[in-house]
UniProtKB/TrEMBL annotation:
InterPro entries reported in the protein's UniProt record: PP2A_PR55, PP2A_PR55_CS, WD40/YVTN_repeat-like_dom_sf, WD40_repeat_dom_sf, WD40_rpt
PANTHER family, alphabetized: PROTEIN PHOSPHATASE PP2A REGULATORY SUBUNIT B (PTHR11871)
Organism: Taeniopygia guttata
Taxonomic path: Eukaryota, Metazoa, Chordata, Craniata, Vertebrata
Name under which the protein is recorded: Serine/threonine-protein phosphatase 2A 55 kDa regulatory subunit B
UniProt keyword Endoplasmic reticulum present: no
Pfam families: WD40 (PF00400)
GO cellular component: protein phosphatase type 2A complex
Underlying gene: PPP2R2B
Family the UniProt entry places it in: Belongs to the phosphatase 2A regulatory subunit B family.
Example GO molecular function: protein phosphatase regulator activity
Keywords: Repeat, WD repeat
Length: 446
């Protein structure tokens, strides 16, 4: 992988928006983005309950530069809108999270979840069809057994490639509150799903039973002071997981100590600076995403204004803190009034854990090189993202004189936000979801 700092000013090239920007239909807004373990496939989920899978183009001798481009591989409806009649509650079809399972055979498997139900999908290819049934005719209608005079041996005939998505498991009725996270365990036999107050452990083979491993619901709901915001398994140790809270804390739990992990093994929290205390302190300290590094040594968390990197061996403060958009501190009041202060930004590591990426407003996304401490702001938009064009770094100006290439903090568009991003597991290829557009950028190729 090429050095990040060398390519910092012109790191990624767009391959264009993969979805139409002509209409901002609510159902088309992308709500999650996830590469599979090889990076050959990229899945997106949207508010309409659909999953769209993109497949990477194979390199050809005629067009070697096309390597890295992704085209639509499969589209299917994962979740439908439902209604809970007992609670008079509408359950949205919006896909909250997608997680891939490692590929074991020719088929692909992924988990997708809305607020209440997790589904395991199998995505497989079919390029042959059976012909010569004895009890059915070629249209599939049953034949009269008395008319069958000869026994035929069915044969497989070639057909156009067809990609089929079939639901193999449906894990339902285990969450009272909205599911915000799913995470596949490193044993690949279990996974967990987390909602605001509870975390459940599932076996992939058992759909009607799950084990509650965390429950922070107080006996009296009026005493509720925090909720679970995100959870993830350790990438290598199947007994360890972390979950973050709306109070800005992270708890590391070990399932070997007790069946119910209400008592954490480690507790990560940064003491608040009294000089920065304000009405918005509690809201902006809420953690919206937590991710283990690929090595398993570090945890990355994203709150409203910063990304923090924590060492598993140091609980009292993060080892690195990166300001994502500190220029918004003066605008917290208006961001509170338009509800933007409650936006849940995600964060991702690159394949070697040396660079981290997260989103911001105005379709900006930020990258931080942990080694050189350099950072860059890039923009995902159709105007400056012609195919093969090089992205130019963007700068935000706070008061004073504005340079020609800068944008004023007062003219930022808060309706355009990058909440969901994904990084290829081994290469400098990133996917950025900007409302109902998916942009894929790759490292500059000489």
């Amino acid at each position: 992988m090429k050095c990040f700092s060398r390519y910092l000013p012109y790191l990624f090239r767009p391959h264009g928006a993969l979805r139409s920007a002509s209409c901002h239909a609510e159902a088309d807004i992308i709500s999650t983005v996830e590469f599979n373990h090889t990076g050959e496939l990229l899945a997106t989920g949207d508010k309409g309950g659909r999953v769209v899978i993109f497949q990477r183009e194979q390199e050809s001798k005629n067009q070697p530069h096309r390597r890295g481009e992704y085209n639509v591989y499969s589209t299917f409806q994962s979740h439908e809108p439902e209604f809970d009649y007992l609670k008079s509650l509408e359950i949205e079809e919006k896909i909250n999270k997608i997680r891939w399972l490692p590929q074991q055979n020719a088929a692909y498997f992924l988990l997708s979840t809305n607020d209440k139900t997790v589904k395991l999908w199998k995505v497989s290819e079919r390029d042959k069809r059976p012909e010569g049934y004895n009890l059915k005719d070629e249209d599939g209608r049953l034949r009269d057994p008395s008319m069958i005079t000869v026994l035929r041996v069915p044969v497989l005939r070639p057909m156009d490639l067809m990609v089929e998505a079939t639901p193999r498991r449906v894990f339902a009725n285990a969450h009272t509150y909205h599911i915000n996270s799913i995470s596949v365990n490193s044993d690949y036999e279990t996974y967990m799903s987390a909602d605001d107050l509870r975390i459940n452990l599932w076996n992939f083979e058992i759909t009607n039973q799950s084990f509650n491993i965390v429950d922070i619901k107080p006996a009296n709901m009026e005493e509720l002071t925090e909720v679970i915001t995100a959870a993830e398994f350790h990438p290598h140790h199947c007994n360890t997981f972390v979950y973050s809270s709306s109070k800005g804390t992270i708890r590391l739990c070990d399932m070997r100590t007790a069946a119910l992990c209400d008592r954490h093994a480690k507790f990560f929290e940064e003491p608040e600076d009294p000089s920065n205390r304000s009405f918005f302190s509690e809201i902006i300290s809420s953690i919206s995403d937590v991710k283990f590094s690929h090595s398993g040594r570090y945890i990355m968390t994203r709150d409203y204004l910063t990304v923090k990197v924590w060492d598993l061996n140091m609980e009292n403060r993060p080892i690195e803190t990166y300001q994502v958009h500190d220029y918004l501190r003066s605008k917290l009041c208006s961001l509170y009034e338009n509800d933007c202060i409650f936006d849940k930004f995600e964060c991702v590591w690159n394949g070697s854990d040396s660079v981290i990426m997260t989103g911001s407003y105005n379709n900006f996304f930020r990258m931080f090189d942990r080694n050189t401490k350099r950072d860059v702001t890039l923009e995902a938009s159709r105007e400056n993202s012609k195919p093969r064009a090089i992205l130019k770094p963007r700068k935000v100006c706070v008061g004073g004189k504005r340079r020609k290439d800068e944008i004023s903090v007062d003219s930022l568009d808060f309706s355009k936000k990058i909440l969901h991003t994904a990084w290829h597991p081994s290469e400098n290829i990133i996917a950025v979801a900007a409302t109902n557009n998916l942009y894929i950028f790759q490292d500059k190729v000489n």
